[in-house]
Amino acid sequence: MSEDMLNEARAARTAAWARFNGRKDALRTGLAEKSIPARIKDAAMDRVIDTVDEAKAVAKDNIPVIGGTMALLAAWFFRRPLLNLIKNRFAPAEADEDVT
Q: Is there a contact between 66 and 59 (Cβ–Cβ < 8 Å)?
């Protein structure tokens, strides 16, 4: 290996080492300002906020669908009391018709 090639290799190594140390120092400085868990928490909160905003926009555009779904869910949840109410409401009328 010639002297020129050796000098070029050393210069390239020194430059690469300097870039590495610069990146390492920047990473340490960044981590000193804000830790990794704090960064993850902030990113997660940003995504949650974006998702909630998008859900609000979709809900605003589909109010009748959401209202109908809620009404059906309420009817299903209260199905037994509603059926008993209907049976009790119309059962006496049927009994009166049988008597006459």
A: yes
Place of tokens 């390492």: 24
Is the CB of residue 83 less than 8 Å from the CB of residue 91?
A: no
Between CA 46 and CA 38 the distance in angstroms is: 12
DSSP 35: -
3-state secondary structure of 57: helix
Report domain extents, the chain: 1-33
Between the CA of residue 65 and those of 23, 42, 43, 62, what are the distances in Å?
53, 33, 32, 5
pLDDT in tens, 72-94: 999 999 999 989 988 888 876 55
Q: Report the amino acid identity of residue 69.
A: T
Q: The pTM is what?
A: 0.47
* Terminal Cα distance for the chain, rounded: 121
How many other β-carbons are positioned within 10 Å of the β-carbon of residue 39?
Answer: 13
